[in-house]
Design brief:
Distance between the termini: 40 Å
Number of helices: 0
Number of strands: 11
Length: 120
């Protein structure tokens, strides 16, 4: 059974930091690219960051470049999102997505999300 569980969200002041974790099980974690998305109230879900299966390459939305860092530990089946210099507009539910793309198909699994609120 596939499980993806995000944690680490909470309330933080502008300029503060949070570290999100995403623990996965039920699939071969090391073969999946991992992504973070977020969805603010009244807005569509948007891409935040991605990391390749071995962790050799990362990609970020322009809005978080230089402030957020995605990383993974394949031994622990966990991906992280270090968020620094948080802004009010970073307030959202953050979701973890596992993605595998093969020659003849693709698979994707989502977590339930963790709330991040940036407020003074």
């Amino acid at each position: 059974q596939v499980r993806i569980v995000e944690s680490g969200g909470g309330l933080v002041q502008p300029g503060g930091s949070l570290r999100l974790s995403c623990a996965a099980s039920g699939f071969t974690f090391s073969t999946y690219a991992m992504n973070w998305y977020r969805q603010a109230p009244g807005k569509e879900r948007e891409f935040v960051a991605a990391i390749t299966s071995a962790g050799g390459s990362t990609n970020y939305a322009d809005s978080v470049k230089g402030r957020f860092t995605i990383s993974r530990d394949n031994a622990k089946n966990t991906v992280y999102l270090q968020m620094n210099s948080l802004k009010l507009e970073d307030t959202a539910v953050y979701y973890c997505k596992a993605e595998w793309v093969g020659l003849v198909g693709r698979k994707a699994y989502w977590g339930q999300g963790t709330q991040v609120t940036v407020s003074s």
